[in-house]
Amino acid sequence: MVVDDHPLWRDGVARDLSERGFDVVATAGDAPSAVRIARAVRPAVVLMDLNLGEQSGVDATRLITAELSGTRVLVLSASGEHDDVLEAVKAGASGYLVKSASCEELVAAVNRTASGDAVFTAGLAGLVLGEYRRMAAAPDERDKPQLTERETEVLRLVAKGLTARQIATRLVISHRTVENHVQSTLRKLQLHNRVELARYAIEHGLDVDPEG
Asked: What's the CATH code, domain 2-137?
């Protein structure tokens, strides 16, 4: 299936692929049509342009790959901008080819995409691999324990060596409230006692006032 908002380009690509033995089951000129038609014909490969007007090819890619497990999207775009490439891949595209690619390169890319390979214009594969490495190395914020503002405040004071009563006086709250915050923090951090709690706080720089 070929998706592009320029009729001459879209028809030309569809014709070239047909002449080389591909079964071009459909074409579309905008994102909503692309998603609707893909749902109906379930193509093995969608050749997707990104610039499709109000709703982009990235939006269509995200919907198609989420709903049609047997369909792969190969982006064919005039843009070789890094942001466009990464957005397309994050949306589920299996590959990314720029429109300056030759017909032979396009044919090979469609075949490889249908076989399950990830296909990128020369120079773009390294970009995508580097981004995934960076994402893998970066801590996932969703996996971090989510402490409340008050729990963090109590944790900072524990790291400074204050007792529960001293913390209660400092924060103008009850001793029992301090203990509740400490127990809640221990559970969230999967720690066992105040010593481990203080060590955690120091290791994460919570013994230093954020204002310096």
From this structure: 3.40.50.2300
